[in-house]
UniProtKB/TrEMBL annotation, chains A, B:
CDD domains: HisRS-like_core, HisRS_anticodon. The keyword Coiled coil does not apply. HAMAP family: His_tRNA_synth (MF_00127). Its main location: cytoplasm. GO terms for cellular component: cytosol; mitochondrion. Residues 307-328 are annotated as: Disordered. The keyword Cytoplasm applies. It catalyses: tRNA(His) + L-histidine + ATP = L-histidyl-tRNA(His) + AMP + diphosphate + H(+). This is Histidine--tRNA ligase, mitochondrial.
């Protein structure tokens, strides 16, 4: 092999990760893991079980599911055998799995994994070609709106766990109400999807421009204005009353069904104590065609152009990192009900689904900004590793480094499950050992000296104590009591675990 | 989009995952997660920090690293832009990362992720085209053999955590000793790598066949026999004495360096209390060329053809699942020291590394067999989900299902972080609710009745208690005390958490 070749040849290519991908390491990785573990805990609290599917699927599985975005799919090269492509999302693989596993009648599944889109990357906003999705979906025939309400409850719990509850709003709408509204206003049926996608832009564009797009798509000005009046509606439960009181809308059958769903939903959201977080927004349309009922999108101030621009201005330099100043990070979670997708794979199988996908890279971007602000204010708690104890040795003239003794003490602590390191040198100097411990923000040191060891004792010292603290210099502990003493200290001082 | 198309068209392709890949779900997934979390805990205990790299790399990064196995690499299709390929292992991406991040002088990194090889799959043995590796590597210049010993300590801790410590052996060898041995026996330098790979087969083939291969590769019969004498040596520390006492070997400079390393290693392994798990085995060679020092491989009885065949015979049916009866599952972890790999990417960067890769799919296969045996013996503890409480309702004539009340109690428990579910129906029958709880092996039920609720109470019932148990029928608890009572019960009864 090429170990020798490598030495003689110069590299003829750039040393980097592919476009739109990145390595995760250090505090970024720790923050990402914290997000995953908070989300996973919530998913499990609701009976979620984990599914893992291959990173690539047969090409035919993905074909015809993503509309014009299909051009963004990564194909594998033809090396003989099957045609495969990297997954574009986690929903289609889940539907494929449901179609294959015909004995599954109901399931709450979650899936946290990378997906792939050959899109234009925008790193500052957390938009990458390889990025993570965290999906939770409930499949199966249940009584109306019970799973839908639980998914929304889960959304609130997740952002509560991420300490973002106060900063999010869940925009809600219902496909049946939206489509009924278009029909009632006189939008021809074959134009409903395209007009719907124009309406979906109302969070980014002013009404004039949206109306222009509608007219370009062949809608009469009057009809557009009528639509415009209705889709401005947003608020809480009272919107249902407004719709019911409107003769035009309340006569539409689709809308009647949608209203029945929404009334149940509001009851359930009340029992779940999350009514304060939702906004019934008739302009919410969502891009994907496969939604059949409730749809939702989670936004924060950073989701909008203004909020994002502000947050970027606050960063002293690097403000040009934002590639497109007209768009915020976008929604940070989104989903809805899709009752017909599994049926596309298995003719005889009809299994209704409702779910949510968290955009963790966007959530990561927001939380990282918050952490950086807190770090500037001196409140940072992120440690580069989780090591709790650093075992050191010191001695005078003729000091042999006590390597075997450091190993033996580390061994004792590892046996007790305590995260421990020591300097990997035969004879390290004491300042060097303190430096290593400090670099890792390790909270505790166990210091070995020959005399103390001979008496069966070691010194336990909490690092980073202020001058004058009574335990600043540490204290002697018998080796037999060391594990217990360390565990007590790790509990008592409530040291940040990461 | 194609929701309507899907209904009218028949699927023209097979509904499946690509060859050599699989979905993970249910108890398989739970077992795999248990393995990951046990391994992760050990890695973190030793100060490991996690690295995540993209699933694909620039093709040039992988080129020239895997010898003839390069043909197994999955390429991405050329869709404009860079040439990329799926990663083949986690070691080369780590070396690429080290080469790029020049400020990193020392690191303990771990990485748990999927890798891809277009190999012939053998599902029964856990050999797939998409499979997981769990890698731990220590990079940086340290005093000799200190990190090497810690890696071996980690190996033992991992298998201890997986309750497999008693069933593993770590075979050790040293490239310098092996190469020195070949040279001392008269193997020409240009034949050392190919003879080495013949010797590596001694765990699968009898000596006669290995000797034949050597002769076919151009080695004289006498030289082969001499090699054969030495590589039969295996045992503990005493092998070092045997080598030192051998005039031919002890004169070789490479061997002298290797012996110095091994003596240090045995000292350190003693301090780490893992000497009993290692076997110094002069026939161990390892395939990859980039190793420069210590090499090792972890085997169990199932690693050998005999052990594997036996375990397959014990399974009543399905014995044909094994594709190649001549090979066991192979080693379940392997690694070694590779001091020159990073240098292949960055001429000026020389950063020595030593590491281990756990073959989790093989470990999974072994543990799953064990779990199935235990399940037959009635000791199974794997639960299909982690839900701890099922909230139910019952009532007589005119019973309205108490849905809002069930939601409200579930809400109370979710707020307290307790994993809770309830039947997603407006009016579920009581037997149906018990059936759902039983299907999920949920340990506790909270049962709501109208009268009890009016008095502020609910019934708490431990499921699966034997007839005649004093708490078989459950007991009433005030709603205010419910959370505390459940937490006490979940702790006290030491219910299996999964």
């Amino acid at each position: 092999m090429a170990a020798k070749e490598g030495k003689s040849n110069k590299l003829s290519f750039q040393l980097k990760t592919p476009k739109g991908t990145r390595d995760w390491m250090g505090t970024d990785m720790i923050l990402r893991e914290q997000i995953f573990s908070a989300i996973t805990e919530v998913f499990k609290r609701h009976g979620g079980t984990q599914l893992d599917t291959p990173v690539f699927e047969l090409k035919e599985i993905l074909a015809g599911k993503y509309g014009e975005d299909s051009r963004l799919i990564y194909d594998l090269a033809d090396q003989g055998g099957e045609d495969c492509a990297l997954r574009y999302d986690l929903t289609v693989p889940f539907a494929r799995w449901l179609a294959m596993n015909t004995t599954v009648q109901h399931i709450k599944r979650f899936h946290i994994a990378k997906v792939y889109r050959r899109d234009q990357p925008a790193v500052a906003k957390g938009r990458m070609r390889e990025f993570y999705q965290c999906d939770f979906d409930i499949a199966g025939t249940y009584d109306a709106m019970i799973p839908d309400a639980e998914v929304l409850r889960i959304v609130v719990e997740v952002f509560e766990a991420l300490k973002m509850r106060d900063y999010i709003t869940i925009k809600l709408n219902h496909r049946k109400i939206l489509d009924g509204l278009f029909a009632a206003c006189g939008v021809p049926e074959d134009k409903i999807r395209s007009i719907s996608s124009a309406v979906d832009k109302l969070d980014k564009l002013p009404w004039d421009q949206v109306k222009l797009e509608m007219e370009e798509k062949g809608l009469e000005s009057e009809v557009a204005d009528k639509v415009g009046e209705y889709v401005k509606l947003s608020g809480g439960r009272e919107i249902l009353e407004t719709i019911k009181a409107d003769e035009l809308l309340s006569a539409n059958e689709h809308i009647q069904k949608g209203i029945a769903d929404m009334e149940l939903l509001f009851n359930y959201l009340e029992a779940y104590e999350v009514l304060d977080k939702v906004s019934f927004d008739l302009s919410l349309a969502r891009g994907l065609d496969y939604y059949t009922g409730l749809i939702y999108e989670v936004v924060t101030p950073l989701s909008t152009p203004e909020g994002f621009a502000q947050s970027q201005d606050k960063k002293k330099s690097k403000s040009n990192k934002s590639d497109d100043p007209n768009v915020g990070v976008g929604s940070i979670a989104a989903g809805g009900r899709y009752d017909d997708l599994v049926n596309m794979f298995a003719k005889k199988r009809q299994i209704p689904c409702v779910g949510i996908s968290f955009g963790v890279d966007r959530i990561f971007t927001i939380m990282k900004q918050r952490n950086e602000r807190e770090a500037e204010e001196g409140n940072s708690t992120v440690r580069p590793s989780e090591v709790d104890v650093f075992v050191m040795a010191f001695g005078g003239k003729g000091f042999n480094g006590l390597l075997a003794e450091r190993m033996s003490v580390a061994n004792q602590l590892w046996n007790a499950g305590i995260k421990t390191e020591f300097a990997p040198s035969v004879k390290p100097r004491l300042p060097q050992q303190f430096k290593l411990a400090e670099a890792g923000k390790v909270p505790l040191a166990v210091i070995l000296g020959e005399d103390e060891l001979a008496a069966g004792k070691v010194k336990l010292k909490e690092l980073g104590l202020p001058e004058g603290h009574p335990e600043k210099e540490g204290y002697l502990v018998s080796r037999d009591d060391l594990v217990e003493e360390i565990k007590k200290k790790l509990n008592k001082t409530a040291l940040p675990l990461r």
